[in-house]
UniProtKB/TrEMBL annotation:
Protein name: Alpha-1,4 glucan phosphorylase
GO MF annotation, one: pyridoxal phosphate binding
Catalytic activity reported: [(1->4)-alpha-D-glucosyl](n) + phosphate = [(1->4)-alpha-D-glucosyl](n-1) + alpha-D-glucose 1-phosphate
Function: Allosteric enzyme that catalyzes the rate-limiting step in glycogen catabolism, the phosphorolytic cleavage of glycogen to produce glucose-1-phosphate, and plays a central role in maintaining cellular and organismal glucose homeostasis. Phosphorylase is an important allosteric enzyme in carbohydrate metabolism. Enzymes from different sources differ in their regulatory mechanisms and in their natural substrates. However, all known phosphorylases share catalytic and structural properties.
Signal peptide limits: none
Ranges of biased composition (kind: Polar residues): 18-31
Class in the EC hierarchy, top level: transferase
Species annotation: Terriglobus roseus
Residues found modified as N6-(pyridoxal phosphate)lysine: K686
Matching Pfam families: Phosphorylase
UniProt keywords, alphabetically: Carbohydrate metabolism, Glycogen metabolism, Glycosyltransferase, Pyridoxal phosphate, Transferase
Spans annotated as Disordered: 1-31
EC number(s) from the headed UniProt entry: 2.4.1.1
Length: 836
C-alpha cells in the first residue's frame, strides 16, 4: 500500500483509474478500522459523489462521509429486520406528525462507536470531521418538544433493542429558518432537501389515500349491510426510510416518512388539450400534502391541509402495518396481539376510525370485531393542556374531507354514550361533556375525546400534568376507566444530549466513575462522592468553562457580540410562548438594569442572558416578546453602566444542533412557565444532565427535577398550580401587583414612557396593556418572587465551590430523565414489549 508510508496524508495527484487499482484493494464496506473507513471514503468520493477529493467541496465530502457511515448501518439494518421476522416479534408503531431528529452524522458515529477511527481516517486524507459534520443540513421535521421527544424515543428504542416502526411525514420544507432583523423574527423557508438526503432510502411499496366524495351502503353476498366510500380524490404515499441505530447494539430500527405524490403525475389527455398547467395540476395538488410542516406550536389552525396531512400519513402507516402483519401469515383478528400503536398527541388520532374503516370496509370485519382490535391497539399520549392546542375539527370540514370517517365517529360516539348512559343514568351534562361531538359554538369533532375513547391507555408526560389531566381536562373519562390512565414522565437521550454535546465533561466523568452509566444513566449517582472534592469540582468547572468559551466564540463570530465566559450563563431557550414567560425574564432584566442605574444594585454578579426560540409566524404576541428581548439587549449591551456586568443575547434560529452547543454552556436553566401550563419540558432535563442549576416554578418536570436533585440544589419561585387556580377564582387583578411593586412599576412605566426604548415604546403597548389588564399567565403575580429568588441565585453563583457542588449534584441525580427510563416504563405498562 504505497499510501501507508506517505507522511501528512494529502490527496495524491494520481489519475483516477491509476488511483483506483493501486490504492484501493477490495473494500470492506462494513469494515470499521480507520483504514477500512479511509478506503471507503475515497471510494465514495469517486463512485458515489463522483468528484476527485482534491477539488471537492465540504458538502461533497459530507455526502461521501455519510455514505461511508450509512454502509456500516446497512448490514445491521437488514439483520434487525430479519431478526424481527425470525422471531415474529410484537412491534410498536409510533405515529408522530413531527420528528425533530437533528443532524445524523455525529450521532451515528457515536452509536456505531466509529468516531475515533473516522477521525483518524479523515486525518489521513487531510480532512477534519467536525468541519465536514457542520455541513449537514438539519432535518427540522418538528416544532419543539413533541417532535424532539419522538426523536429521543427512537434513539432509546433502538438502544434498548425494542422492535419499532416510526411513522411520520417527509416534509419537503421543515420548520422555518429564523432570522432576526432589527429585533424582529423573519421566517425563511427551510430547504433541507436541496442537496438530497444521504440518510434516507426510498422504498418500493406505495399506498393510495383517498379524500372527499361520499359514502353509500350495499348488501354484500351474505346479504349483510355494508358501507363503502366513493372518494373523489386519491393521492399516493411513497415511503422514505431512515435507519435509526442504537447505542452499542446491532439494532437499527426504521423511521418511515411518507411523501405525497400524484397517482398519475402527468395527464397526457389534458396536456394534449393544450392545458399544460392542468396536466400537472393533480401532481401539484397532491404533493402539497407533504410540502411543509405547520409551524404553529400549541395553537390549532383548523386548516384542511393540516387534516389532510394527518390522515395521509396515518392511513399510509396503518395500511403498511396491516400488510406487514398479513405478510407474516398472521390473521387481522390478531393484529392487536402483534402490534401496539402509540399516538403522539391527537395529530394521528384519525387512525382510530381509519383502522375501523380498513377492517370493516376492506376486510369485512363486524363492528364489534373491528372495535375489539382497534381499542386494544392504540395508546394515546397527551402533551398539552392548553385549550387552544386541543384539536377539534368543524363537522362540515371534517365530513367533507372524510365522510366515511365521520360516519364511523358518530357510531363510536353513539355506542360510547349508550354505555355511559347506562353507567350514569339521567346525567345529560356528563353526556354532553363526554361526547366526541362538541356542541359549543361551531359543532366539531374533538380529537382528544376520540383518542381517549379509542385507546387502551392514556398518559400524560409528567406527574403534575397527568394529575391535571385526570383531575381536570379528562376527569369524566378518568372517573369511568381510571385503569387506562398512567403517567410517563418524559426523558431525553443521553447520547445526543450529553455524550455528543459535552465530550469534555463526559471524559471527566468516564475517568472518574467509569462508563457503566452509558447504558444506565442512574450510574451517574457515582459522582455524588466527589461533591465536596475541591480538586474535582475545579476540573468540573474547567470542563464547563471550555463549553462556555466555545459558545462565546460562536456568539462573537456569528453575532459580533462579546460575552464573558467567566460570567454566569443564564439560559432561556425554548419555543416562544406567553405561558413559557420569556417576557417575565425580559422585564426582570430591565429591573436589574434600573437597579444598577439608580445604584441600588451595587455589585451585580456578571451575567450573560442567553435567549433562543422560534415564534409561530401567526403568533403576534410571541413575536413581540422576541422584539422586547432584542430591545432590552440593545439597551443594556450598549449602556456603559451595565455592559460590563450584563449582556443579553437572542440567538437566532434555535435548533437541535444549536441546542447541543448551548446546553453544555448553561450555568442557570430558566424553567419559569406559569405553574400548570408546561406539560413537562425536556430542555430542563438536558441542562440538568449537563450540570446546569434550575430556577423554576413547580410546573411540569421541574417538580420531579427538584425532587431528584434535592430542594437545596434548585431555585424555586412563584405560585403553585393550585394557588394560580385560587387566584384566578378569586379574581386576578394584575394591575394591583404593578401598583404595589416599585420594581415592577418602574419597569412597566419605563417601557411606556419611552425611558428604555425611546420612540419604540409604542411598539410594546399591546404587551404592556395585556399584562396590566389581563396577564393570563400571571407574569406580574410572580414577578417579585422571581426577583427575590434570582438575587439568591446571583449570590450563590459567587461561591464557586458551592455552585460547583450544586451543578455536580444535578448531573449526578439526572438519571431519571434518560429517555431509556421512560421507554422502559412504556414497554412495561402500555406496549407490553420486552426490553433488550
Ligand atoms: C395543533 C397545534 C399543535 C402543535 C403541537 C398543538 C400541540 C402541539 C404539541 C403538543 C406541542 C408540544 O410540543 N408540547 C410539548 O410537548 C413536550 C413533550 O412532551 C413537553 O415536554 C412540553 O411541555 C409540551 O409543551
Amino acid at each position: 500500500m504505497p499510501f501507508q508510508d506517505q507522511e501528512a496524508p494529502r490527496p495524491q495527484q494520481h489519475e483516477p483509474e491509476q488511483q483506483a487499482q493501486d490504492t484501493q484493494p477490495s473494500e470492506n464496506r462494513a469494515g470499521t478500522s480507520a483504514k477500512d473507513l479511509e478506503i471507503s471514503f475515497r471510494n465514495h468520493m469517486t463512485h458515489t459523489v463522483g468528484r476527485p477529493l482534491e477539488n471537492s467541496s465540504i458538502l461533497d465530502q459530507y455526502h461521501a462521509l455519510a455514505a461511508v457511515v450509512r454502509d456500516r448501518m446497512m448490514d445491521q439494518w437488514l439483520e434487525t429486520i430479519e431478526n424481527y421476522k425470525q422471531h415474529n416479534v410484537r412491534v410498536l408503531g409510533y405515529l408522530s406528525a413531527e420528528y425533530l431528529l437533528g443532524p445524523h452524522l455525529e450521532n451515528a458515529l457515536l452509536n456505531l462507536d466509529l468516531r475515533p477511527q473516522m477521525e483518524e481516517a479523515l486525518k489521513n486524507v487531510g480532512l477534519d470531521l467536525a468541519t465536514i459534520a457542520a455541513e449537514e443540513p438539519e432535518p427540522g421535521l418538528g416544532n419543539g418538544g413533541l417532535g424532539r421527544l419522538a426523536a429521543c424515543f427512537m434513539d432509546s428504542l433502538s438502544t434498548l433493542d425494542v422492535p419499532v416502526l416510526g411513522y411520520g411525514l417527509r416534509y419537503e420544507f421543515g420548520i422555518f429558518r429564523q432570522e432576526i432583523v432589527d429585533g424582529w423574527q423573519v421566517e425563511k423557508s427551510d430547504k433541507w432537501l436541496q442537496y438530497g438526503n444521504p440518510w434516507e432510502i426510498g422504498a418500493s411499496t406505495s399506498y393510495e389515500v383517498c379524500f372527499f366524495g361520499h359514502t353509500e351502503t350495499y348488501n354484500d353476498d351474505q346479504g349483510l349491510l355494508r358501507h363503502r366510500w366513493v372518494p373523489e380524490h386519491t393521492v399516493k404515499g411513497i415511503p422514505y426510510d431512515t435507519p435509526i441505530p442504537g447505542y452499542q447494539t446491532r439494532t437499527v430500527n426504521r423511521l418511515r416518512l411518507w411523501k405525497a405524490a400524484a397517482v398519475d403525475s402527468f395527464d397526457l389527455s389534458i396536456f394534449n388539450s393544450g392545458d399544460y398547467m392542468g396536466a400537472v395540476r393533480q401532481k401539484m395538488e397532491s404533493e402539497t400534502i407533504s410540502k411543509v410542516l405547520y409551524p404553529p406550536d400549541e395553537q390549532i389552525q383548523g386548516k384542511r391541509l393540516r387534516l389532510m396531512q394527518q390522515y395521509f400519513f396515518t392511513s399510509c402507516s396503518l395500511q403498511d402495518m396491516l400488510r406487514l402483519h398479513c405478510m407474516r401469515g398472521e390473521k387481522l383478528s390478531t393484529f392487536h396481539e402483534k402490534w401496539t400503536i402509540q399516538l403522539n398527541d391527537t395529530h394521528p388520532s384519525i387512525g382510530i376510525p381509519e383502522l375501523m374503516r380498513l377492517l370493516m370496509d376492506n376486510h369485512n370485519f363486524s363492528w364489534d370485531d373491528a372495535w375489539n382490535v382497534t381499542q386494544k391497539t392504540f395508546g394515546y399520549t397527551n402533551h398539552t393542556l392548553l385549550p387552544e392546542a386541543l384539536e377539534r375539527w368543524p363537522l362540515d370540514l371534517f365530513g367533507g374531507l372524510l365522510p366515511r370517517h365521520l360516519e364511523i365517529i358518530y357510531e363510536i360516539n353513539e355506542r360510547f354514550l349508550d354505555d355511559m348512559r347506562s353507567r350514569y343514568p339521567n346525567d345529560d351534562a356528563r353526556m354532553r361533556r363526554m361526547s366526541i361531538i362538541g356542541e359549543e359554538g361551531e359543532r366539531s369533532v374533538q380529537m382528544a375525546k376520540l383518542a381517549v375513547i379509542g385507546s387502551k391507555a392514556i398518559n400524560g408526560v409528567a406527574e403534575l400534568h397527568t394529575q391535571l389531566l385526570e383531575q381536570d381536562t379528562l376527569h369524566d373519562y378518568y372517573e369511568t376507566f381510571p385503569e387506562r390512565f398512567s403517567n410517563k414522565t418524559n426523558g431525553v437521550t443521553p447520547r445526543r444530549w450529553l455524550m455528543l454535546s459535552n465530550p469534555c465533561l463526559v471524559d471527566l466523568i468516564n475517568e472518574t466513575i467509569g462508563t457503566r452509566w452509558h447504558k444506565d444513566l442512574y450510574g451517574l449517582r457515582g459522582l455524588e462522592h466527589f461533591a465536596d472534592d475541591k480538586n474535582f469540582l475545579a476540573r468540573w468547572r474547567q470542563a464547563q468553562e471550555g463549553c462556555k468559551s466555545s459558545l462565546a466564540k460562536y456568539i462573537s463570530q456569528n453575532l459580533s457580540i462579546t460575552v464573558d465566559p467567566a460570567s454566569m450563563f443564564d439560559v432561556h431557550v425554548k419555543r416562544i410562548h406567553e405561558y413559557k414567560r420569556q417576557h417575565l425574564k425580559a422585564l426582570h432584566i430591565l429591573s436589574l438594569y434600573c437597579q444598577i442605574k439608580n445604584g441600588t444594585l451595587k455589585n451585580p454578579t456578571p451575567t450573560t442572558y442567553l435567549f433562543g426560540g422560534k415564534a409561530a409566524p401567526s403568533y403576534v404576541m410571541a413575536k413581540l416578546m422576541i422584539k422586547l428581548v432584542c430591545s432590552v439587549a440593545d439597551l443594556v449591551n450598549n449602556d456603559p453602566a451595565t455592559r460590563d456586568v450584563m449582556k443579553v443575547v437572542f440567538l437566532p434560529n434555535y435548533s437541535v444542533s444549536l441546542g447541543q452547543h448551548i446546553y453544555p454552556a448553561a450555568d442557570l436553566s430558566e424553567q419559569i412557565s406559569t405553574a400548570g401550563k408546561e406539560a413537562s419540558g425536556t430542555g430542563c432535563m438536558k441542562m440538568m444532565m449537563n450540570g446546569a442549576v434550575t430556577i423554576g416554578t413547580l410546573d411540569g418536570a421541574n417538580i420531579e427535577i427538584r425532587k431528584e436533585c434535592g430542594e437545596e440544589n434548585f431555585f424555586l419561585f412563584g405560585l403553585t398550580a393550585p394557588q394560580i387556580a385560587d387566584t384566578l377564582h378569586a379574581g386576578y387583578q394584575p394591575r394591583a401587583y404593578y401598583e404595589r411593586s416599585p420594581l415592577l412599576k418602574e419597569v412597566m412605566d419605563g417601557i411606556t414612557s419611552g425611558r428604555f426604548f425611546g420612540g419604540n415604546s409604542a411598539t410594546f403597548a399591546p404587551l404592556v396593556d395585556n399584562l396590566l389588564s389581563w396577564d393570563p399567565f400571571f407574569v406580574l403575580a410572580d414577578f417579585d418572587s422571581y426577583d427575590t429568588v434570582h438575587t439568591q441565585v446571583s449570590d450563590a453563583y459567587r461561591d464557586t465551590n458551592a455552585w460547583g457542588r450544586m451543578s455536580l449534584l444535578n448531573t449526578a441525580r439526572s438519571g431519571k430523565f434518560s429517555s431509556d427510563r421512560t421507554i422502559r416504563e412504556y414497554c412495561r405498562d402500555i406496549w407490553k414489549l420486552p426490553v433488550g
